[in-house]
Every structure is written in structure tokens, then in C-alpha cells.
Amino acid sequence: MTEPMLALIAEELARIAADKGETLPAIGPDTQFLGGDLPIDSLDLATLLVVLEQRTGKDPFRAGFIQFTTVGELAALYRLDTAVP
Amino acid sequence: MTALPPPWIAPGVRLIEAGAVRGWADIAQRADAFEAEIRKGGPAVVHGDGVPTTVAALVAAERAGVELVLKRHAGSVAENATPVAVGGAAPGFAVLLETSGTTGVPKRVRHDFRRLCGRLRGTADPDARWLLTYEPVSFAGLQVILTALASGATLVSTPGATAADLVRAAVRHGVTHASGTPSFWRSFLLTLGAERPPLASITLGGEAADQPLLDRLASLFPTAKLRHIYASTEAGALFAVTDGRAGFPAAWLETGVDGVALRISDGVLEVNSPRAMLGYAGAEASSDVWLSTGDVVEVRGDRVLFAGRLDGRVNVGGIKVSPEAVEQVLLAVPGVQDALVQAAANPITGHILTASIVPAPGAEEAPLRAAIRDAAATLPPAARPRVLTLVERIPLGTAGKKKREGTA
């Protein structure tokens, strides 16, 4: 399971939202990033990916864009990725 | 009594904005009222309004024979700013558009309206349903609006929309044609649920389109015509690439494309285009027919690929920002001894800015971060460094300059 990754995403999303003076609802694997569930925009999502790379040492997006819509789908990308040497 | 539409509007056009449907009769009514205001001496100005208002203002200003100013935000450009002329200074109806300045001062650019319309290759297509993803009063937005008007299509717009709003509108109204930046399309895909609009035509422009994005769009919308267009402010619309691959064919450096000759000089793409602007207002036409695009390119196999801007500006979510200009803002913050702003490649927004900060002796972290955040808040969202790292020193390159990496 990807529970630690879910927790890390929730933690960093909360930080990004707090910087904008927003608070987040409860986050689960089915929470959509940009579908209206969360008070974040594409720049916030871009920020999240930079921070996740710093925190995990992994970058599943090395080769470019990958489609995902939910927190669970993003977490799975990091689970499948191997660490950057 | 309703007058006939001007030649650049097909009578069957429909504008759907925020759910309300308007046809030529509604546009004409608004145009009549606006024209009366102008003739009484009122200002021919549109303030970042919705599509029906913008179209009515274009009709009214053309009829009244006055120049129309299309403003993004009230008072964002000095009233006495001298506009730059694009497309020559031919007499006739013109519109003044504001460029999207981020860290620089926005400028006004004058466009000859007839040339704007003449550039469109649209044919009558009354069944097409266009989605407007750009601001109506931007150059790209106006191109989409004029294309839809000329073809008698339906144009769907949602002012102030988020990506999620645009996806919902596209699904609800069965949008068939959409043009947007690669950053728009990435957000669109990240928001798309099980329901998909029946897209027949997908256009990307405004920044370099990457291969994974093109591949994803092609696989989700296999019957859609997929193309990315290349244009620059000085050189105008240059060419469209329709083979679904990033960059453009290297063979075009020999053959040219669509009347445009291309060459690479010191790693920078230069063009010789019949659609280039004729010169700045009041200046002599340049005798040098080759124009630098400022875009750094590299040839890889049979392809020419874009590798960033010569001036170091990067695209963040479809907006060009200058890391160096942002660095100057951070350096002015008390408690900052040195700063380096870098562009990191990003799968969502193309790039994103990050900052390394050397604190001044005695500066405490929490107040310093707060002060930097306050300073960054004066910048447009795309230009704000999203990740701040405190460091002991900034690494210097061999020439003694700060190393600004990762801008490709």
C-alpha cells in the first residue's frame, strides 16, 4: 500500500494551502487535485511535485507529463518509481 | 430593426457564456448601445469583459470608425503609453491589445483589424463548437473569437474559469474545437473524468509542446486533428505542425514552410516571414529580412526541438517570466544577502521557479521567509518562487556568474 506516500502528499498539500490562507478538507485516495475538491490550482500542484521530489528523491515525471487526477493515482506513481541515483 | 452583421461575423453565430446563449440579434443590440455611447464622446474601451461585450464593442468601434482599446485590467498600463504597431500602420480600424507583462511593464500593441481577420483561414463550419481557453481580450483569445465568428460556429466561454470549470463546460456543451497552451491542456487532462468532450480539433500554442503531452492527447482523442502552432510577437503566426511530434521537421530549414524561410544562427531560430510586422510605429522598415525569434533550438535527428529562450525567460503555466527579474525582487528584501532564482522543469506548468537564499548574518529564518513571501506576493502568481531553500552560499560558474541551471 502507499499509505506513507498518501500521508506525505496530504502533509505537503496542507502546507501549500496554509501558505494561501486556505485549509484543506480530509484527503483520501479518491480526492481529485484540480476537479474542485481542493482549494488549489495548477501552480500549487506544480509546487507539490517539486516538494515531493525533494522529500522522496524520486521523480516519476522525468520523461514528461503523465496523466493523473486523484491523490491515490499520484501516490502510485511514486511507489512505482525507482529512486534517482 | 437589426442591422446585418459585418462581413467578419457569420449570421448564425452563437455565443454561450456562463450558460446564457446569445445570437447576432443580442450582439447587435449591445453594439447599437455602445456605438451611441462612443458617438456621444464615450471611451472606446473594453475592460477585460466577457465575449458578447467584447464582440459588440468591436462591431460598434468599427462602425464609429474609432480605435478600440482592449484592456486586461483597469489601469494596468499607463494611459499615455505609446502603442507598438504590428502589421504596419495601414489606415483602417485598429484594436489596441495589452501584452501579458509579468515582471516587465505591459505594453500596448496596435493591430490592424482587417489583417487580424485576414489571417484567419476559417471556412464556414456552423456545427463546430469552440471552447475559449484564453482571456477574451488577449491576442490568442481574439484569434479564437474571430475564428468562431467567421465560421458561424458556437463559442463557449466561462469568464474567470478554472481548468475544472472549462472541462465541465466542454463536456456540457459538447465542445468540438479547442485551442490552448500546453499548460492548459495538461490541466485539462488532470481534471478530465470519465466523460470526454467530442473533440475533433486540438490546437496547442504559446509555448513548446512536449512529446508525452502530444502522445496523451492523441491516445485520448484518436480522431481529433492535433496540431501545435508556432508564432512570435515580431514575426506573427509562422507555421503549424500536424504530425503529432514535438518540434518541427529539420527538412523545413531547407525547404521553408507555408511561405516562411527558417534558419539557425548561433543556436537561435531566425525566420524570414511575409507575415512579419512591418516595423515599429514611426520607424523605417528594416532592410534585414531575417528576424531572430529569440528561441534557442537544437537539431536532433530529423527534428528541430525548442530548448528555451535566449533571454533566459521561461514559460510558467503559459506565462513568460524572467528568473533574473524575480531575483532582483528577492535581493531587495532586508535580510537577504544573496539570492538565486532558477527554473525547474515541471510536468504541470512547463517550468516553475525555485529560489536559493543566503541569509544576511543574524537574519532569523521564520521572519526572513515571511518577508520573502510578502515580497513575492507583489509578483504575478506564475512569477513567484514556489520553493525557498536557505543556503550558505550560491555556487558560481567559471565566469564568476551565478549558475542558472535547468532552464531547458
Structure description:
The complex is a heterodimer of chains A (85) and B (408). With 85 residues, chain A is mostly helical. Chain A has one domain (3-64). Chain A is built from three helices and no strands. In chain A, helix 1 (3-19) packs across helix 2 (42-56). Chain B contains ten helices and 23 strands. In chain B, the strands form five sheets. An eight-stranded mixed β-sheet of chain B has the order 2-1-9-8-10-11-12-13, with helices on both faces. Chain B has helices at 24-39, 51-64, 113-118, 139-151, 163-172, 182-191, 211-220, 252-255, 323-331, 365-376; strands at 14-17, 20-22, 45-47, 68-71, 84-86, 94-98, 108-112, 129-132, 154-157, 177-180, 201-204, 225-232, 236-241, 248-249, 261-265, 268-272, 291-300, 303-309, 314-316, 319-321, 336-346, 350-359, 387-390. Chain B is globular, with a radius of gyration of 23 Å. In chain B, helix 5 packs across helix 6 (182-191). Among the domains of chain B are: 14-199, ANL, N-terminal domain (Rossmann fold, 3-Layer(aba) Sandwich); 314-390, ANL, C-terminal domain (GMP Synthetase, Chain A, domain 3), CATH 3.30.300.30.
